[in-house]
Target: DNA starvation/stationary phase protection protein
Amino acid sequence: MAASANPKYTVPGLSVEQAGELIGILQMRLHALNDLHLTLKHVHWNVVGPHFIAVHEMLDPQVDRVRDMADDVAERAAALGGVSQGTPGALVAARSWEDYSVGRAGAIAHLGALDLVYSGVITDVRAAIEQVGPIDPATEDLLIEQLRDLEQFQWFVRAHLETSGGELRTADADTEVEAARRAGS
Model:
């Protein structure tokens, strides 16, 4: 059964059609969270320079929380009667974004690129909240909780990118490579 197909049963108070819609939305959140988890680990492994240890250690709790978020999303889909697709192939086939594009780089450069990653994930979570809100307050609550954590993680990242004048060095960057370049300069 595909993750977005209507389930055979669901929780009381929702139709199987509503549950199917929620499951499809949750599946994309699961893909985004699995991708984010792997991206954070990639940065963790490939960060270098004078801020190495600070960034290296800052990312591990984010990785752990994002993995927990993915588990919560998959379990919510299961509670709704769905099947979560957690394989790499399913993620790559369904995603609308490109792979993280920065390899071995300085800590601040990676944080510049990560700021864009977080912006994309947060924007998508906000859109998902708008979609699920009219259908199911439990799923909406789950996503709102995750949004708060993701926004806090972005704040941690941005604290390294902010100038003394309160500007983000990565402002208006369109690509991860451009954000990394601006942050690193």
In short: The chain has a mean pLDDT of 94.
